[in-house]
Amino acid sequence: MKNHNLFLTPDYRYRLPESNFKKLILSLIILLSFVHVAAQNNINISGTVVDDQGEAVIGASVVAQKSKNGTITDVEGNFKLSVRSNDVLTISFIGYITQTVPVSGKNNIVVTLKENSMLLDEVVVTGFGLAQKKASVTGAISSVGAQELAHAKSVTATGALVGKLPGVNFRQDNGRPGAAPNIQIRNMGTPLIIIDGVQKDSGNLNNLDFNDIESVSVLKDASAAIYGMQAANGVVVITTKRGQKNQKLKVNVNGYYGWQLPSNYPKPASAEDYLAAIIQTETINGTPRTVTKEEYQKWVDKVDEEHTSFDWYKYIWVSAPQSYINANVSGGTEKVRYYLSLGHIDQEGNIRGFNGFNRTNMQSNIDIDITNRFKVGVAINGRIETTDNPGLPGDDYNLPIYGAYNNLPTKKPYANNNPKYPAISAPWAQDSFGWMNYEHAGRYKDQWKVIQINGTAEYEILKGLKARGLFSYWLANRRQSNREYSYKFYEYDKENDVYNVVETGTARYTERSMEMKEELTSNIQLSYENTFALHHVNAVVGFEAKKGTYPRMYALGNPPANGIPYIDKTSLSTFTDGIGNPQTRMGYIGRLNYDYANKYIIELSGRYDGSYRYKRGKRWGFFPSASIGYRVTEEKFWQDVDFLKDNITNLKIRASYGVLGEELGTALSHIVGYNYNDGGAVIDGGLVTGSTVTGLATDNITWGKSKILNIGIDLGFLDNRLNASFDYFNRDQTGLLASRYDVQIPEEVGFSLPQENLNSNYARGFDASVNWRDRIGDVNYTVGGNVTYSRWYVGDRYKPRFSSEWQKFRYQAGNITGRYTDVEFSLVSDGQFQSWEEIANHPIDQDHQGNITLKPGDAKYKDMNGDGLINDADWRAIGYRKGGTPWVNFAFNLALDWKGIDFRADFVGATAYTYVQQGFLRYFDSNKNLSQYLWNNSTRLVDIWDADSGFNIGKYPLALRTRNSSDCTHWPSDFWYTNMTYLKMRNVEVGYTLPQKWTSKVGISRCRFYVSGQNLFSLKNIDIDIDPEITAENGMAYPNMKVVNFGFSVDF
């Protein structure tokens, strides 16, 4: 009976004898007294943390293991803490080896931390619950942590990554509110995004709160094979922050407020220069005058307000604020760990009258150890984001972006300067900026509401053998509402003090769009990890499935008046209802890691993938990869040589090869479909809606494949203060889609042949990085840089055909194996014509009219084939890539810390891509203003009123309103091309952390203030005021703004 439970029924409960009961009570009293005394036996200790050179380590974490109390060192490396007399301190700091020191009743402790600058024990997350020490990584993987991301105050998470990852290219081609840089890995295309183990698109990455990110790992080579489909362009693996075991409650609040300043936008010409260009055109062409000398002189002299140039650039583009605030709580016990975060960002628009973009983010990560073997976790993240601006025809930003040129400098936005009455200020009334606001144009609003719930469970079956499951539900609702008003333009009758309507825009639209995206992801895996003597094994097998539906509804109405916000059946003109476009994918995964003595490392992985896109029998594909690594510095022969051991402290050689799948083609192309509501006919007096066949079905489309080889080396010198890595890669892309041209079908069929997996391309390149980290006195500093070169080549083409050797030469870029892709062809320039006499004596017919259209200052072209005529037979390969990501991208970073003051700077740059000068930077449009840059640098008459006054030859031809792209001086040629090179200061930040001895008095463990800037300046090899990342060649894009922020970060 002694072993029976005390909670059994009275008849079977064990009863203590009275004498034993008294002894038990006495023992409990003595025990409680001892506990009370022990609880009071705390001591106050002080100490100092220094490095191996005796210098103070500022901000080192000091935590007592038993009492759980903690603090950080001040600017002199000192700390004070209340601990138990038998406690153990854990002292840690980034870049140093963590130490544990027993208190042993001491009142003062000095701790020396040893630098660990290589951080080979750093963990790199590669996904599927897998993480590896950096030392054992055999693939080409770049990573960055939360500390580096925190210094880039970007609206988007992608923006915070710019310049920090070798082999990863970023390019922000516009600065619209909420816009993010485009990301590519080694110029391979859009990568796959993994956030906390779940596949997402780049939009979800961009809209993460950068403050919630713990780490980013980028898989650049065949190591991405485990992710199967859509991973051929590389994988970006994101993990969000989580609480840690036995972590003391930590509250962090950080935020900033700043201003966005317009920059890098080509300025329009002033009124006097605009009129001068018109006068010059009329003088050269001998056409009637539209501007008299007297009127022109009034504008030059600015005789009154009516004759003062209106600066449309300054009026349309305004400075605007942006703000950010985030509060997060993290901590943990032995069993429960948590991280909770709430953030909000507000980015107002830089176009006058435009509201901009705002987003609210929520992140909640909770992990619970149910038992020592069974663990569960729940992660919830959500966001609400809104874009708000006036409702304008087409792209709501285009009209204002072009507004500085569409609106003439001799006009003003409002009649009698009254904002209630928009005036016509552009040759096309709709281009007039005065009506582009909420009152006169309407409103466009685009809102996303997104939530994702991840549930995970892990059970340790045996030591090292774990089963893990993940289930994710993602729901995104998008609602777009657009109301475009009719509008009126006015003139002011000063004599009668009335405003008269001179033109009316009658188009009214009310649009509604509702879209829902719903995705379910499940992942089940079994992993095993163990060490046997010098052998270490880590293996995983698993299954992953994903299903998504994407229904959408759209309605367009034409309401009878501006004030009607709804669409009824009488005003409805268009209605579409999407069926949801269901998509299903699944795959089986496997990976094995083995290393011997931490010297010889092998990794094998593979994935058997299936996609809904293809017909049965072609839906599945197997995509394997293998990699090896050799840590030479772990060999005995290396350690036995002092010079090698002391100077080259890390040398790892690695190589990988794999085949990755690519989903190509449209879904279900093996099935004949129909387009409904395509045409129609009247039958028996009624309209019958028509349907058409989508095209010929094909059974010959399946996976494309990318064979990726990577060979790399990692190096560490001088006790790992200097680190470097280099990777060479090539990618052979096969199974690209193309159609056969040599199979004829009757034209009456009305279809072309479907595409098949026929062609191939390949890429070659390298990426490299170097980093130096050291300390001089109290100054810690880091300098690093990286560079990436990647270029695509033409592979196989299905039976290429050419009508002549010239055509073969001319179109080699897309059709000849081994040639570069994206090569620009154009005429080759040979300077400029200096006079009428030179034009008259020129032996080559350049304009196909005996050179009668040529003028001094025009571009002169080389007759490459010597036939006396300039035409497309004289075109040659010129320049590098046009548009997209440059072939060469580089970045360098600088970090300094000194006694609480810190400095960070990130520079990015590129070269080997071609900029083509277009639009307002090349022509004087007949209905618009011209750029001030073009006027200042173009050829001009000495006297704009006298055609015989001679010419001042400028950098560019005459800016004449009657000239456009058809004029021979504007034909495609290297005269208008520049091989661009630039360097941009992407981020810079200066901060100061207040001494802890000040902040601890008010319960603050750390308080930092900073000022930061983005896009403050760029150096480039062109003198045009245009952002080098903007892909709009005429400069007409929403410019990337200069940003200055003032911020703080406080830990409690």
TrEMBL record:
GO terms for molecular function: siderophore uptake transmembrane transporter activity. Keywords: Cell outer membrane, Membrane, Receptor, Signal, Transmembrane, Transmembrane beta strand, Transport. It is found in: Cell outer membrane. One of its GO terms (cellular component) is cell outer membrane. It is a multi-pass membrane protein. GO terms for biological process: siderophore transmembrane transport. Residues 134-235 form the TonB-dependent receptor plug domain. SUPFAM superfamilies: Carboxypeptidase regulatory domain-like (SSF49464), Porins (SSF56935). It comes from the Bacteria. InterPro entries: CarboxyPept-like_regulatory, EF_Hand_1_Ca_BS, Plug_dom, Plug_dom_sf, TonB-dep_OMP_SusC/RagA, TonB-dep_OMP_SusC/RagA_CS, TonB-dep_rcpt-like. Its main location: membrane. PANTHER family: HEMOGLOBIN AND HEMOGLOBIN-HAPTOGLOBIN-BINDING PROTEIN 1-RELATED, TONB-DEPENDENT OUTER MEMBRANE RECEPTOR. Belongs to the TonB-dependent receptor family. This is TonB-dependent receptor. It comes from Bacteroides intestinalis.
